[in-house]
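Could someone model magnesium ion with this protein?
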Amino acid sequence: MKWPDLFEETYAAITINKARSGLTILGIVIGIASVIAMVAIGQGAQSSIEANIQSIGSNLILIMPGSQRGAGVQVSSGRGSAQTLKLADANALEKEISGIKAMAPEISRRYQATAKGKNTNTQVIGTVPAYLDVRNVKIYSGNFFTGQQQKSLSKVAVLGPTARDDLFGTDVDPAGQSIRINGIEFKIIGVTKAKGGTGFGSQDDMIFVPLETAQRFLAGEDYLTTISVQAQDQNSMTTIQQEIANLLLRRHNIANPQAADFNVLNQSDIVATASSVTSVFTILLSSIAGISLLVGGIGIMNMMLTTVTERTREIGLRKAIGGKRRDINRQFLAESVMLTFLGGIFGVILGWLLAWGVSKFVNIATQVSFVSVLLAFGVSAAIGIIFGYYPARRASKLNPIAALRYE
Amino acid sequence: MIECRSITKIYVNGDQETRVLGGVSFTIAEGEFVAVMGPSGSGKSTLMHILGALDYPTAGTYFLDGKDISKMSDDEQADIRKDKIGFVFQSFNLLPRATVVRNVALPLVYAEVPKKEREKAAKLALTQVGLDESRFYHLSNQLSGGQMQRVAIARALVNNPSLILADEPTGNLDTKTGEIVLKTFEQLNKEGHTIVLITHEAEVARHAQRIIHIKDGDIIKDEKVDRP
Ligand SMILES: Nc1ncnc2c1ncn2[C@@H]1O[C@H](COP(=O)(O)OP(=O)(O)OP(=O)(O)O)[C@@H](O)[C@H]1O
Ligand SMILES: [Mg+2]
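Reply:
Sure, complex below.
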């Protein structure tokens, strides 16, 4: 039997019972679509998290206060809420550790900010001018505050683009206007550039104010929530990380490193942790989707077995007029591969639509990769072959006389 | 062309043995028109299946054109059926949801004949058996019994086989249509096809040149028909 004829026979066989073929295909469509969508969501989440982490700066080491872990009960008061880091710590680090390129201590908290009747609850970051370099923040319009303004407790503020949008609207230059943060009036001197990064912790919904202004007027405390340290280069990061830890332990009079009241995090550790979490998440999602694909494959096999039984007389006739085992085998294999392949095509389309819908309405970035589409086609064809193999073999081995007598 | 040497067919069901053919031997020469006649259940269809390389005899050998068919594999037999044999089954065995032309052209699909030629050959065969052209693209389950019979015969002719085996080809036809079909076989025989026609009616058997009578799986008489 020639290929075009095989194709024609297959097409005819599939269209004879459209409802049944359609439902069987639907099983594969759902399986493939969920695999595509789940992988897309997983990979999208992974790359958006990685991009977010990378965009906070380069060669970055973050120092955060932690709860003192004494013997016995462990009290975790949550990241950044402990009050163990002081500005003096930051100054000591800068003085005593070589290889630090820049450093930015900060105190950040959420406050209510109001401007002309509009208000928003946003992250207010009290910091120093070096923050721009360390955390890779760029100015869009106006200026960032200077070291002078920082020291003189100026009540000036620089808005992140989202905070600007919420308080003044897009495309408005708010420089010179004032806002109230927690009831205290600040003058706006600039707006930062958008960093992008949606979903997992926006880096654009922020207001920057001078560090000591924030400590004095907003927090009323002199502790820090983070010290961001930028190393000279990638290679020195581990050494610097270790030196920072040693110095802070000494300053805080803690002998046992296990009992440290702070955490020193390396940017690449954060990326690695986040990636391992998201890849577990991706694997989990896609294996659940894979199960539905398996169920779809069983549906194919079930339909093919039924078809072979129903068409026993036809198989007998085909053999009687000269069909070889190979011809019969191919015919039924072609049918199941055609079913799964159609399922693959619609599945890829549906999966892509799902992924698109998720990124559009749930605001999670998704990524349908070419590889996963190729893989989907490969897998669906393979399912057709695997689950069609046994029914096709059964058909090809039928004895023509027995098959013709079959009722 | 056909040489059978003590062909035996025994069906075994559990411990019960049914002896359907009890060692029949005969030869049929190229170009002969032979009728096999016998009562129902005498083993006529079984014999036809063996002659058509569709079934294996339990014992004995069967030569077709000098080749021992009874020793061939499944696929080798399929090739013989494809190239040399045309079947008309007792129960037609048409594909119900395919058109008449597609049914008739089906053997040529396995012979890998191009589509255009297949359709041409199918239409020619259908004209030969006298099916009205208006029925060519009907589905085969929309036909009357007599029309189906003719489609089944056309399908047996389409690959121009040297041997045509017909199992009760007039069983479903009225006398007049039956005559037409039998005339077709006579015509085909004149064109050089060897024909084995199975029937239980003496009227029908008389159209052949020779009649082999079988009863309970044995040949009881082998006679030449005298043409008037
Ligand atoms: N698979 C089988 N198992 C057991 N017995 C069988 C089998 N196939 C056929 N037979 C028996 O073989 C005998 C001959 O059958 P066959 O079909 O050859 O008869 P026939 O001469 O063609 O009859 P009819 O004129 O009614 O078509 C019957 O008695 C039938 O019961
Ligand atoms: Mg019979």
